[in-house]
Amino acid sequence: MKFYNLGTCSRPCGILKWRGLTIMMDCSLDLTPILNFIPLPLAGNSKFNNISQYQNYQTSFEEELSELNGYVLVNSNPIFGVPTETSIDISELDVILISNSASILALPFFTDNVNFNGAVYATEPTVAIGKFFMEELVEFVQNVPRTRPRFKQPQNGTKGDTDRMEDEENEILANNGTGKSATSIFKLLNSTLNFPVKLGNQCFNKELREIYTKKSISDALLKVRIVGYNEHTDIFGKVLVTAVSSGFSLGSCNWIFKAETKKIAYISSSSTLTTHPSQMEQTPLKDCDIFILSGLNKAPTNVADQSLGEICLNAFSTLTAGGNVIFPCYPSGIVYDLFECLSAHLTANRCSQYPFYFIAPQSETSLAYSNILSEWLSVGKQRKVYIPEDPFPHTELVKTNRLKHFKALHEITDLRQPCIVFCGHPSLRFGDIVHLVESWGSNSANTIIFTDADLPYIECLLPYQPLAMKAIYCPIDPSLNFYQANKLIKDLKPRLLVTHEEYLVPPKNFPSRAELVIEYGNVHRISPGSMISLKLKRKSVQTMMDPKMAQEIDPTYRTGKDVFVFASTITTSLDNMDNKNRLVKPQMDLCDPMKVPPSKYTWGNLDPALLFEKLSSEGLVATIQYTSTGCIINIPSERATIQVDGTSSEIICKKNDLGAARGKLRRILVSCLTEF
Fold first, then answer.
1. Residue 404, SS3?
2. What is the DSSP letter of 566?
3. Whole-structure pTM value
4. CA-CA distance, 523 to 505, in Å (whole number)?
5. Which of 147, 184, 222, 341 qualifies as a FRET site for 277, CA 20 to 30 Å off?
């Protein structure tokens, strides 16, 4: 068994090769590279449309580089990090398993490949919400396309340098838009340039591509097979795969692999907190041979409840002071909890007059869809459905006009201020939030609150500096923290833990916090791009018996030394179809004595002393020599040897023996065994 780690601890992606199958688990999209790009503004008078070029770097990409606030930024369509593994051909992938809606974003890059013939499995909410995320991403980027500047040759370059740059330019332009790597100037730039995210970062070791199209999203989702919680899915008769609730988001799951007596669990972005999704199922994860752990809390020192409290206090103080509050967010997930907590806090403080604006291309669909997923909700939310009541308070907020949803900012004809605006994208690189931050950033009464723990908020704000409005960082990550993860592992007691090397040492930001590590006895560590071999030997194989043959079995009670069982002999053929073994009644040729089964079978252990005694009673002089595994009996008169060990016996005769001596010795040896 081999495990390839294609992702990072925060953006999981791995490939498991086991029992002849190649299984990909999650295909997360790395959004970090987009922080090195200039935001895509919707307004024509935006400052981002008139940024000076970077003058101190002589390359053919000079026109594509700009300088802003002392940082170098790329002035072109953003690119994203896609997990790749050069040692595995995409045609080898049999299955892709998706754990949650955040881990599906890179799926179209794989399904668009003509060599991909595998199946994709995910839960219904994961597919639906993942579609929201992907379509929103495409709309944000494609609504404001940047014209890629013409490449320039080096001013002082030699002919050889010029030819090399032209070759690189032609290769890049040829690949652009064909499903291969998009234009990536990062591969040709000096790593010492002052980018917001340094080029030596792990995200630039991946394949960098421009975003896919809506057609690619539709084609990818057509290949997804919907599964439910605790539904067993047979993968080519070799492995049984089961999705169990992980408690992280609507439809999120952990995956369990079973084959005969072996069991593997893949844990990604799980939560034991009580929020709106269904609770995490822990019982099915017990007694695992291998436990693969990923997607732990990205803000391990922050407590979700405390962050929510700080958010409510900061929003309340901003609104009462006459300012507006901006929440960069995704169209689903934590935003539902923010609606609930903020509305309740403002109502409790008699400030329910402040409106909420939810601006996203999928805002209406997201709000409506969340109310029809009762089977995927927590117990408390499910009870409301059966009363019946709306499981989420945002339905009532929409009815009372406190929460207004729009597909785009320009659809709002009357923006009442002060207000709270939920808008995307959390990176602040595209979407309506670019215009909002530019427009409201100069007012110190306004506040922008970051709740996403995946992207560094300081780097997100760099292109907008200087800003007068307050920036608050209150990350809400319901994933397992180190204390919860250690408790979970201790309770489940897997035989082997496989996890990221970053989890085995304190975080770089908190080197003295020794409690922020995973502690377990038997651990295999993985790093980005690494491959590890895991030992998981099979001691038995599961086989089904044909029902007709089972009806003919008549077991009898057998006794022996410390043995009290009902047993029966069978004569059968082993049939293998679709990687499943089956015992069937054999087709016997009664005219061929070699194919007729014996009337009785022998069983039990051979007693060397009894065999020696019976040889003597037949007039055969023998000598016995005991070994570590059994014994060797020599019969000089027959020029034969009997070798006996714990599981077998062998009669060895001289070459010119016509079978008489062998037959005689076999009869004596069988008489020492039990027959039935």
1. strand
2. E
3. 0.82
4. 13
5. 222
Residue 239 bridge partners (DSSP)? 235
502: left (phi over 0), alpha (psi -120 to 50) or beta: alpha
Task: Kindly compute the dihedral angle of the four CA atoms of residues 592, 595, 596, 600, in this order, to the nearest 10 degrees.
Answer: 150
Q: What's the whole-number mean pLDDT along residues 332-350?
A: 93
Sign of CA dihedral 478, 484, 485, 488: negative
SS3 category, 473 = strand
> What is the C-alpha separation between 112 and 210, in angstroms, rounded?
14
CA-to-CA dists, residue 606 to 360, 562, 609, 611, angstroms = 78, 16, 9, 8
Of 44-48, 101-105, 207-211, 594-598, give the range with the top mean pLDDT. Answer: 101-105
The single residue listed with the structure tokens 């409506």 is 368
Contact 97, 13 (CB under 8 A): no
The C-alpha atoms of residue 289 and residue 281 are separated, in whole angstroms, by 18
Give the pLDDT confidence of 570-627 residue by residue, as tens digits. 888 888 877 778 888 887 766 666 667 777 778 778 888 888 888 888 888 888 888 8
Match 């002589």 to its residue by tokens.
Answer: 58
Angle at 290 between CA 285 and CA 295, to 5 degrees: 70
Read off φ and ψ for residue 570, nearest 5 degrees: -135, 150
